[in-house]
Task: structure prediction
Amino acid sequence: MRTKLFFMLAFAFLVLAACNKSSNSGKCNFTPTNAVAPANEIAALGALLDASYTQHSSGIFYKILTPGVGVTAGVCSDVTVKYIGSLINGTAFDSSYQRSPNGATFTLGQLILGWQIGIPIIKKGGSIILYIPPSLGYGAAGGGAAIPPNSNLVFQIELVEVQ
Result:
């Protein structure tokens, strides 16, 4: 009797899971951002950088280390990345290398605006350094104890996979 109940519950779970997956496939609730940092944030960040960095129209600054090949990420893409995040003074606040040596996977549209803008600049296999002004990062709220409010952020990112 228990075996029969187990199989009935397992079957019901599989049917519901399959229905849920098929109803969501091909849909994305994220839209590309057209956010632009305030001029004072862009000017303050730009003053800290040399001419080897390119200013994006959004206000992030970047340097492509390796452009990559093939697929470019969009906001609905799942991206696997290896990265180090730090404050402008060099204090590291996050590193996927410590937690996930093979990379961490995220849906791009769920990440901070600076990543949504910066990661599509490179392609799969590429790497980039992003300097992100506060309004395209964690803004006035900050990011917990490690990221103070209104912090400029620096990320060195390797784009391992785009799905």
Observations:
- The beta strands are 54-55, 61-66, 78-87, 92-95, 104-107, 127-132, 153-162.
- The two ends are 43 Å apart (CA to CA).
- Confidence is low (pLDDT under 50) at residues 1-24.
